[in-house]
Specification:
Layout (H helix, E strand, L loop, with lengths): L5 E9 L3 E4 H18 L1 H5 L11 H8 L3 E4 L25 H17 L8 E5 L10 H9 L4 E5 L5 H15 L4 E9 L17 E10 L10 E10 L5 E2 L21 E2 L1 H22 L7 E5 L5 H12 L12 H4 L6 H8 L9 E8 L3 E9 L1
Parallel strand pairs: 4-5, 4-6, 11-12
Antiparallel strand pairs: 1-7, 1-8, 2-3, 6-7, 8-13, 9-10, 12-13
Helix pairs in contact: 1-3, 4-5, 7-8
Length: 376
């Protein structure tokens, strides 16, 4: 059986309506710290409780490269008495928030490609957290767009986009789908502990969408990217974890523990993931007989600027410039699976036919994915 060639023909982006600067986030966090320390002053004084430490905008930017983030709700996050987004439940007959975000990104991609929802025959929602267990949010997106065929949700944390790209690529290559919509709708602010100094600044919200098609369906005028190859890797680690799930209600004592939000051992992650991602991409390129210097663009997962700098240095043997490894982390923060696709969406129009690029993601699992693209 001959395999079909596959093209990534369009991408789309939904950016939430609210932005929070580091300074705005720090004002709320430091007020919480002061309130907490005053409330527990006696215990802190006698040594039975440790005082919480304030944060600063300079600390956040130095630690991560992040300057601001977009969110679906701002008021609740910057209220020191709340410190979480307020996202009220909707009636079951209304479109869910995650589906709404995904549909907005999908409509952007469809418009750029000149297609209708009915032209799609497979939908993947791939992201770190699903709004519910079932029915699948991807099927809700499929219905809202009027797409045909089938849909399902998948979760490989921050690597969900690259894992979904390979899944979509395989489906088209073997003929089980002709046009696949991949949606990465991330509401990361809802699983972030805004009272944790080491991580309260990390995440933002966003949604991206990509359309993959059988190559013979894409005219030369709609150039897009040919998919040259995909490579995935996983290895179990507890260093990035979120224990939220349906079994939580069965243990009321720990139902709302901090482990039900994002938990990360940052130094261990940094030490273990950086070399693994760099080596993964080096080996992937070698398997395709592509030299690192032939790659014009690296759309890396947008988690931490220093991590990306080290990964690019391992691949190239030198520092990458901003054109080679564009940054959206500074204004979007870490948007989990959406991050590398935002970078692809915003920084690809200048590439010429034949130019090569790598989409890369890495995160909890550990999970690492890379997709090599060639501009048509």
């Amino acid at each position: 059986m001959s395999l079909h060639s596959v093209v990534l023909s369009a991408s789309g982006l939904f950016t939430p309506p609210h932005s929070i600067s580091n300074d705005e986030l720090v004002v709320a966090f430091n007020q919480y710290v002061n309130n907490h320390n005053q409330q527990h002053a006696a215990e802190i004084a006698n040594g039975t409780r440790e005082a919480l430490q304030e944060s600063s905008g300079a600390f956040i930017e130095k630690a991560s490269g992040i300057k601001s983030r977009f969110v679906m709700d701002k008021a609740g996050i910057i209220d020191p008495e709340v410190m979480r987004p307020y996202l009220p439940a909707r009636d079951d007959e209304e479109i869910s928030l995650q589906a709404q975000m995904g549909v907005a990104a999908a409509q952007d991609a469809l418009a750029r490609r000149g297609l209708q929802g009915s032209d799609i025959d497979m939908v993947l929602l791939a992201c770190s957290n699903m709004q519910r267990a079932y029915p699948a949010v991807s099927v809700e997106i499929q219905a809202a767009l009027g797409a045909r065929g089938f849909a399902f949700d998948m979760n490989v944390a921050c690597s969900s986009a690259t894992f979904a790209l390979q899944t979509a690529y395989n489906a088209i290559a073997v003929g089980s789908a002709t046009r696949v919509l991949v949606v990465n709708a991330e509401i990361c602010s809802a699983h972030l502990n805004f009272r944790d100094r080491d991580s309260h600044f990390i995440f933002g919200d966003a949604a991206t969408a990509m359309i993959l098609e059988r190559a013979d369906l894409v005219d030369d005028a709609q150039r897009g990217f040919k998919i040259r190859g995909t490579s995935l890797f996983t290895q179990f680690s507890n260093n990035i974890r979120n224990n939220f799930g349906f079994l939580n209600r069965c243990d009321p004592e720990h139902q709302f523990g901090m482990d039900k939000l994002f938990v990360q051992h940052g130094r261990k992650v940094f030490k273990e993931v950086c070399p693994a991602v760099g080596e993964h991409i080096v080996q992937h390129l070698a398997a395709l007989n592509i030299r690192a210097d032939d790659i014009k663009r690296f759309w890396l997962h947008q988690a931490n600027q220093t991590m990306n700098d080290l990964i690019a240095r391992r691949i190239l043997g030198r520092d990458a410039n901003k054109e080679e490894a564009p940054v959206i982390l500074d204004r979007y923060a870490n948007t989990s699976s959406a991050g590398s696709i935002i970078a692809l969406h915003l920084y690809s129009d200048d590439l010429q036919s034949g130019d090569l690029g790598v989409v890369s993601s890495f995160g909890a699992g550990y999970s690492i994915g890379s997709v090599v693209l060639e501009k048509r």
